[in-house]
């Protein structure tokens, strides 16, 4: 059984992580905003995985057991907030949009010297909290199944996101012992989305990781299961507001 570290105070700092580096399961007594100035950052809990490129940040409520993973060279900026400061009014992890102003506020706040309690820093935090309250939530959560039949199907797609098989074929290969109708119902009831929606989320998560590693857009599209680069670009733009090419260049 993996040991869960208890880190009483969520850090407010910046650190650089190498490609495909993980931080083992842990929890904080404070809330935390985790932002990757470069690269891609994900957190995983028992409820699933949330992923954030440099245009997004992760909200991690106090007490949430989670593990981090970085993809590509990642500058990790963490903002710790005491529990009485909950600008998102959320008790579950979430992904939030990061515009230019919020980005600069996070960078400035995390680069300040440790222990800085100056009036300027307090004003900076006040503006940062205002921006967090206004930040839109992003649907970048890949929920994790608990039903063993559903978990077996999802495991096949995690192993190969490009697998084009339908739900009936995947269920048969996984030995799920459930009909396509039953599996479809489980996706909606347990994961809150349809099977095609879940598979698209999985493919987008994988695409972000591959783009962060430097793989060309066309190669990412085919490795993640899109029939063409243009189809991938269209889905990516609708999910993130920009093309995978512009994301990779940034």
Describe this structure in words.
The protein has 250 residues and is of the alpha+beta class. It folds into 2 domains: 137 residues, Jelly Rolls (Sandwich); 105 residues, Arc Repressor Mutant, subunit A. The protein is built from 9 helices and 12 strands. Strands 1-3-8-5-6-12 form a 6-stranded mixed β-sheet, covered by helices on one side. It has a 6-stranded antiparallel β-sheet with strand order 2-9-4-7-10-11, covered by helices on one side. A hairpin with a 2-residue loop joins strand 5 and strand 6. Helix 1 packs antiparallel against helix 2, helix 4 packs across helix 5 and helix 7 crosses helix 8. The longest helix has 18 residues. The protein is globular.
Using the CA coordinates, give the radius of gyration: 19 Å
Distance between the termini: 39 Å
Low-confidence stretches: none
- Domain count: the total is 2
Which strand order spans the largest sheet, edge to edge or round the barrel?
Answer: 1-3-8-5-6-12
Task: Report the CATH topology name of the largest domain.
Answer: Jelly Rolls
Which architecture of the largest domain per CATH?
Sandwich
Mean pLDDT: 90
Percent in helix: 40-55%
The SS-based structural class is alpha+beta
CATH class term of the largest domain: Mainly Beta
Morphology call? globular
Listing every helix as H and every strand as E from the N terminus to the C terminus, the arrangement reads EEEEEEEEEEHHEEHHHHHHH
Total strand segments: 12
Question: What share of the residues does DSSP label as strand, in percent?
Answer: 15-25%
For the biggest sheet, the summary is: 6 strands, mixed
SS summary, helix count = 9
């Amino acid at each position: 059984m993996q040991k869960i570290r208890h880190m009483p105070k969520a850090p407010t700092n910046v650190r650089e992580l190498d490609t495909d580096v993980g931080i083992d399961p842990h929890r904080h007594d404070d809330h935390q905003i985790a932002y990757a100035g470069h690269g891609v950052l994900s957190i995983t809990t028992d409820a699933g995985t949330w992923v954030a490129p440099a245009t997004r940040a992760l909200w991690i409520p106090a007490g949430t057991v989670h593990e981090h993973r970085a993809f590509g060279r990642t500058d990790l900026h963490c903002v710790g907030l005491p529990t009485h400061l909950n600008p998102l009014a959320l008790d579950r992890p979430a992904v939030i949009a990061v515009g230019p102003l919020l980005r600069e506020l996070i960078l400035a706040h995390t680069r300040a010297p440790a222990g800085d309690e100056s009036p300027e820093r307090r004003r900076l935090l006040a503006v940062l909290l205002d921006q967090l309250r206004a930040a839109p939530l992003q649907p970048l959560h890949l929920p994790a199944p608990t039903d063993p039949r559903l978990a077996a199907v999802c495991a096949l797609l995690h192993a190969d996101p490009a697998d084009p098989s339908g739900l009936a074929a995947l269920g048969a290969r996984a030995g799920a012992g459930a009909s396509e109708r039953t599996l479809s119902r489980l996706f909606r009831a347990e994961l809150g989305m349809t099977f095609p929606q879940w598979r698209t989320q999985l493919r987008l998560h994988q695409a972000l990781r591959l783009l962060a590693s430097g793989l060309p857009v066309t190669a990412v599209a085919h490795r993640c299961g899109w029939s063409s680069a243009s189809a991938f670009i269209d889905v990516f733009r609708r999910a993130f507001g920009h093309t995978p090419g512009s994301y990779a260049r940034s």
